[in-house]
Amino acid sequence: MFNVLFSLASDGGSQSPCASPGSSSRDHLLNTVYKQHRLRQRVLEPYRRIKNALKKMQTEYSQSKENNMFARYMRMQSMIHEVTILEKQYWQLLDIPGPGASEPATDYVIRVMEILDDVKSAPQRTGIAGLLSATFNVDKTRDATLFDSIKKMSTAELRKECDRMYLDLYKLIKKYLSLRKIVKNLYSDYRASRFLPMVPRYTLLKAMIKNVLRAPAFAEVCHETTE
């Protein structure tokens, strides 16, 4: 999964975009590291939202084993619904494209940064987008604090931070996309089972939850703390 990530790290620092002649000026590094940290903040929010929802499902599923069949059936419906509602509440998540088959990790992260910058700078509309505009002042304050903290770094520290952040962002985005896929598949399976009788659906709901909890993508993050 991370072959391209490790190949990037082992290719040598001379090929890092943070160390190339056209990209190593302090102003350019400052701007790049700022954008990297801002992207990390934006991806972390929906990542944690999905991760926490799945971990809650894991806990509740274990507890539901003490219930009778009917109570457990109702509880499984509820816990799946709480996860799949994230797919309907699209404004709580981010739509991020996956990497190209041979796309270098750094190029992919840069592409995601550009896409999300374009989305954030687009004119706000009415409805959900209009409601979300209320968070802009908070974002601006947070961004200003972030920029001030980055400005305190030396040029050498900025260059090192830039390289580190490209790798960390690639890992984070890949984990987010893997969890998002789990939610999408669960949402699709859950909707497809809506009109089945209770007994066969009970078995299906159990299978859906087990598939989620046994998924490699969830196993990779289930040990992380709930945030």
From TrEMBL:
Protein name: NSL complex protein NSL2
Organism expressing this protein natively: Anisakis simplex (Herring worm)
